[in-house]
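> tool_call: predict_assembly(chains=two)
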Amino acid sequence: MLSRVAESIYWMSRYVERAENVARFVDVNLNLMLDTPTADQQWQPLVNITGDHADFAKRHGGVASSENVIQFLTFDRENPNSIISCLRAARENARSVREIISSEMWLQLNTFYLMVNSAASSGKGFESPHNFFNDVKMASHLFTGLTNATMTHGEAWHFGRLGLMLERADKTSRILDVKYFILLRSVAEVGTIYDDVQWVAVLRSASAFEMYRKRHGRISPTGIVEFLLLDAEFPRAVRYCLNSARDSLHAISGTPEGSDRKPAEKLLGQICSDLAHASVEEIVKAGLHEYLDTLQTNLNRASTGIYERFFATRVPESGRPAKEKAQ
Amino acid sequence: MNLAGYEIGKFYDEMFEDDGRPRAPVRPLVKKIESLSPGELANRQQAADRALVQAGITFNVYGESAGLEKVLPFDLVPRMVTATEWETIEKGLKQRIHALNLFIDDIYNDRRIIKDRAVPPEIITSSKGFRTQCVGLHPPRGLWCHITGTDLVRHSDGQIYVLEDNLRCPSGVSYVLENRRLMKSLFPEVFDASKIRPVSNYPIHLRDMLEYLAPDGGGTPRVVLLTPGVYNSAYFEHSFLAQQMGVELVQGSDLVVFDGFVWMRTTKGFEHVDVIYRRVDDDFLDPEAFRADSMLGVPGLMEVYKAGHVALANAPGTGVADDKVVYAYVPRIIKYYLGEDIILPNVPTYICAEADGLAYVLEHLPELVVKAANESGGYGMLIGPHATAAECAEFARRIKADPRNYIAQPTLSLSRVPTLVNGALEGRHVDLRPYILYGKDIFVLPGGLTRVALKKGSLVVNSSQGGGTKDTWVLASDVGTAEQSQTQGPMTASGGRT
């Protein structure tokens, strides 16, 4: 398929997933604030998760409040990672590949965008934020569901899944990173009811609470890290996401397992194999933050590898522009 | 809904006879509209509008902020064409396209028509659409104008005239297909009663035609549709047609020329391209052959095209016949190449480049519509009856300074079709753009884009200036409809000749 089309589908999926994850962060934080009446409002970590704290500080001053953070993460058109910007970008990408995706997918993405757009102008996002963020999550699920149910699971679909899974792995790892850092810092509260509440919030932001309970039972920081990072079956766990991304990459390139692979595949295979053999005790002992930092650097390198391999096709050495040839 | 209050006025109405009776073929439709409770028609109209926004069936507006999309207003009262009338339209269009293709080929090669003095030489070389790069070109299968969207109008005399030829990548056919899809969901019962010819197979004909142009080489040819990109006003259509044909939609940057062929960049390397349905204007097609500053084209494309290793539809240079002065000569062009009289008449046209034409025009300016050659979209014209004396004087000055650039036509009174305005039906002026494909043979899509001037009294139907669209229903047969036509019978008792 066309390189440009592959890239558009990849980014379309990444942006929808990104919008969904931002809605998850905000929604869970809103809930958390309701459960912790005595604690200070903690909005700054949300901005940190998205990695846009410098941009936020520049435009909204230093103090993070529920209003300015929600505005920044949801409706701020100048923040390229706000929900509305993500959906605009996803829709622009979808528009350029309308003839490749199913019309159901386009219809849903367009409706999704129009819904957020009208919430931005009507103020609905602030009046009933839970409903709004829930709508965003469900609209994203509907889009992903339609993608899986109405689009041929061929090369184009695999590029979409590749983008979605890389994005989700990235966001889950960021949630863990930021929350772990903050929660362990407030030593005074370890073991208190607020500690548990906070950990439950981390799980909920990844829709992981119930599934975690089934797998691990007791709420414990290492258990949660293990579940969100190393679980091979939970669909928002980093390892699950990267395994899926790796499978899609294989399906796209058609390279059999174990043969001489190109950099992106090699790197992604390496990350997956590391996660398969890692133990949570060792990770926490050596420092979760350092581990996640390395993981994100590797993911970025894998993304660059994908770009160079599939999206930036170059004219082969033997090829000469027609005009030069004629001369 | 009561239609008793509908005013026909002094115009030709496509739905009603002058005395107010519905024309025979539209009776099932009129009956349906009358059976709807007040407000129901408006409800269906709203449902249609919503469906268009949700489906993102939009066009982009030039000059406004990038990415601003508008829905082309759609009116749900269709325009009908009888089978008998359509037969004439179809014959006339086939004749016209056949002759125009021969004309374009002749102009860029032997110029017999000029040597034989059937048209004056200067009308060709001064036409803005003439491309020196195409001189001596022999496009695949001898075809230049593969896709045409001829604009037709009906005057108050009841006659249908050709207004413009549009031989350069005409747009709008996607609305024909989408309007029909909408109408079938809104008025299924009327379709059943009226026997309307389908339009949905257009993409199949289009793809067949494009494949027919492919350079020989065996295997299924690779066809692509070249678009300027998502910000082009017709991007929706490009994407829609590519999807309906099952071909790749490409942008200039997706294509590259090397080793004497055109290739597209794919995730698995470079793949060979045989036929390009290009929706990029001549000037932007290839920066090495045309405008050097074009970012939309493919450098080196024309060389590959001239070598016969890729086909382009339409061929570059067809705009020479879109010139408004060349238009005036079409009846003579048809006579010259085919030895036939024109079937579907031109609007009577005065050519200012000819002495008697010029004299007539200058004398009758307040009655005429004056058009500058090669301006489209309704810009650069004088509508005499609506112009002030000062405006007429100014145009007279311009015509005298450059007579070659002007033609004039009598003011036409376009026919009207009932149109939903604030919950009631009012007459609005329409034109009709049928689509013609020229491949192995000439195919005329039975239907077309009916454009409607939504502003009261306006004659300008362009989407950029407040126009909307309607579905166009071509009847399969005039005798099969609910009641026998009273207005036209193929057999008349007084069949004598004089």
